[in-house]
Every structure is written in structure tokens, then in C-alpha cells.
Amino acid sequence: LCWTGVQVGSVTQATPTVTTVTLSCFRYPLGTVSRRHLCIHETVSNLSEGYDIDSACRALTAPWIRDSAIQNTDVEVCSFFEGYENEGKEAILKAGVYDLAEFRQHGTDRGWCPYFFARRMLTFANVIVYSYHYLLDPKVAALVSRDLNRDAIVVFDEAHNIDNVCIESLSVNIDESILGRSRACLGRLARAVERSKAEDASRLREEYERIMTSVPLATMNAAAGSEMRGPPVLPEDVLHEAVPTEIRRAENFLAVVQVVINVLKSRMQLNSSVEESPTRFVEEIVRDGNLEDKKDLRFTSDRLTSLLKTLEVSDWSEYRPLQIVSDFVTVAATYLQNGFTIIFEPFDSYTGDCKPILQLA
């Protein structure tokens, strides 16, 4: 491999999914992946699913959890993250090539979280061996890749799959299980809002006042902390206007989400394959939810993220089904005229069993 006359040396396989590239003439070549590969916390690192590891990490590192731990020593936090925050945030690696094992060892030796340290070092790296999801999936890129050195060389592992990844990153599938669990999530979230109003109404009031400003909601979510997930849309399509009146208050927003779930449920009751445009789907939600404009629904994902943060929800895995539903309607409302289609299939294409699924792609 060669870029602008600079020779890149041997390529060796370090793990089944991560390629280590030996380079010359670069100061900070490094490979980095998810918490699942870099976490060294005794309990969290032993979880099997990546999303569970992410949620468990947030439950130990969220700002409100760390604030509570100052007042109550029984509140558990991650010692490696605390070590990174106290000593590692200003540290710089010496010039060299770093793979996952070296990051984990570096974190173990110093008591610093390898994942967050690697994330920080991305801003200094000249060459990065990357999974393409980190750069091509809007939800992940907004979180991890927004501060990359603009002159950095990014090496994609398994790059022949890029086309599929681009399609999948803006595709959302919903089955009966997700829809059923999203209804339970919505009820749980509504109860959390009521508890917050009774115990500390100032949090919801402050959120409402923030939303009333002219600052885009996506920008506020990004500024709220490095662990806030990005919107499921391409960066240039993230909204810049104010949040619509209809979903500014938490109760009103949850009412709109209930309408979305009801419309999705009506599609699940069909007994034959159906293909429809996002416009028709979104117009039905606008009508049933008494919204003023189809564009209002483009805020759904960001509005949910804001509410989860306001309610200080640490375990986001509990609300994963509701996030999927929010992503579905956000993408549908954002790309009304961009070739997207909603497809309903009542039967499994392989087994023929009744297994309804809605696909937005």
C-alpha cells in the first residue's frame, strides 16, 4: 500500500476483526475499536453483548453517577475511567504503532480506561485502522469520529463490505418483539417523567428552557457529553432549526411517540406483503398526532436522547426498543424524497413462518 510516495510496510492479522498495519514515517498510527475489545473492567468486560457493555459502562461513568458517588461512597463507579479523568486526559503517547493489546496493557499499567484514552488519541493519530462503522454510520461517527485529524489516513478493514454498511447504517427493521417492548419502554418512560415532576421538576423545566433556545437539539445533545449517541441521519441532514412546539414538553413528545407505535402496530396486522413510501407513513402519524408539519418528526431521535439524559437514565439498554422506533420514524421523516421505501413482510422469507417485520431501507 502506498500514499503520496510514503511506503506502508507489512500487514499482519492481530485478531479476526482488527488489522495491525506496520508503518513508517508516521507519528501516531493506531488501531481502535469498541468498548467490547478495549474494556478492562472486571465485571463489564465479561458481558457478552456489545450493547450491554456500552450500557454497563455508561452506568458507571455517567456524570450524575459520578456526582452521586462523591456524596455516597456506596455508589459504584469505574476506577479506570476515574483514573483516566484524573491523570490520563492530558497524557500523550510516545510516537509509535499501537494495537488493541498495547492499549489494554497501557491502561492496566496506569489504571486508565483504554477505550477513552484511545478515543482521545484519535485526535492526534496520523494513521487509523478503523472499522468502517465508526466513520460511515452517522450514529457512531457523531460520537467517535467528529474530532479526527482532517489529514489522518483511515485504513478500513474488510473494505469490500462498505456498500452494505452504508445501506445498513440508514436501514431500520422492526418486528413484533421490538414493537411490544417499545410500548413497555414508553410506559416506563412516562412513569419516570411523572416521578421527576413530583421529585425534581426543575430538571424537566430546565430541559424545556434549553429546547426553547435557538440552539439545534442535535448540537445540545453532542455538547451534553461525549457519550450521547448521534442522530441516525447523515451529518449534512441533521436539523438546524428550533424544536417544534408539539414535542418540546416531555408529555407531548411521549404522546407523539405513542401515535408512532400505534401506526406501526397497524402495519403489523396486515396479512400480505406491502410496500409504501415514507411520505404516506409519516403523513398518517402527522394526522393522528395533530402535528403541524411532517418535518417535526425528524427530531424524534434527538428528542428521545435529550429526555433520557434529562431523566438521568444510565442503562440505555432498557430503552433500546424505543430508540429503534425513534430511529425508524426519524429516518423516514428525514428522507421522504430520497428513494427510501417501507416494506412489510408478514412471513419469514426462509421458513415461511408468520413473523411480521417492517423494513425501512
Overview of this structure, please?
The structure is a single chain. The protein is an alpha+beta fold and 361 residues long. It has helices spanning 35-38, 50-61, 63-71, 79-88, 100-110, 114-121, 133-136, 138-144, 162-169, 176-199, 201-212, 217-223, 250-268, 278-288, 300-310, 320-334, and strands spanning 2-3, 6-13, 19-23, 29-31, 127-130, 153-156, 172-175, 274-276, 342-347, 354-360. The protein has a 4-stranded antiparallel sheet. It has a 3-stranded antiparallel sheet with strand order 1-2-3, with no helix packed on it. 34% of the residues are buried.
Outline of this structure?
By secondary structure, this protein is an alpha+beta fold. It is 48% helix and 13% strand.
Count of helical regions: 16
Report how far apart the termini are: 35 Å
- Principal-axis shape equals globular
What structural category arises from helix and sheet content?
Answer: alpha+beta
- Biggest sheet layout: 4 strands, antiparallel
What is the share of helical residues? 40-55%
Task: Going across the biggest sheet, name each strand in turn.
Answer: 7-10-9-8
Over the alpha carbons, how many angstroms does the gyration radius reach?
22 Å
Strand content: 5-15%
Task: Compute the number of strand runs.
Answer: 10
Mean pLDDT: 81
Which spans have pLDDT < 50 for at least 5 consecutive residues? 1-26
Keywords for this entry:
16 helices; three-stranded antiparallel beta sheet; four-stranded antiparallel beta sheet; alpha+beta; 361 residues; globular; disordered N terminus
